[in-house]
Amino acid sequence: MKCVCVTKCYIEGPSGRNQLFVRGDVAEFKICPDHFVSLDSEEYEFSFAKASETELLEATWSFSEAKDFVKIAYDRELKKTDKADIVKQILDARYRAVNPADVDHTRP
User: Fold this and answer.
1) Does residue 16 surpass a pLDDT of 60?
2) Number of structural domains, the chain?
């Protein structure tokens, strides 16, 4: 089953070697280890605002959900293409979003 990492950890990965996993990494396991939840479980909370690129690619969501979220949150329009390109558009919108509180208005 596909599992998503919820906290940074070192564990034996699917390849049999110890690997570093960080929040948002998705890997295939027979049983999800500690620090991971199944993409299909009820305790996994998917969020367009917080999901990593890997999560966005692996999770199941509709284009209309993504389009509505990006329009409301970032005031941008998504173009309907393949899933990988839509994920890039979502990430681009997130990266370009600037919190007004983070802008220094005192500089000339």
Assistant:
1) yes
2) 2
pTM of the shown model: 0.68
Of 12, 62, 61, nearest in space to 34 by CA: 12
Distances (CA, A) of 108 to 27, 104, 105: 48, 10, 8
- Secondary structure element (H or E) that encloses residue 103, with its range: none
Tell me the residue length of the chain.
Answer: 108
Cα separation, 33 vs 13, in Å, equals 10
- Higher per-residue pLDDT: 106 or 4: 4
Q: Which two tokens stand for residue 92?
A: 């681009």
* Tokens linked to 67: 């389009």
Which tens digits make up the pLDDT trace of 46-68?
A: 888 888 898 899 888 899 999 99
CA pair distance 6, 43, nearest whole angstrom: 11
39 and 57 fall within a common domain = no
- Give me the residue label for tokens 């393949």: 82
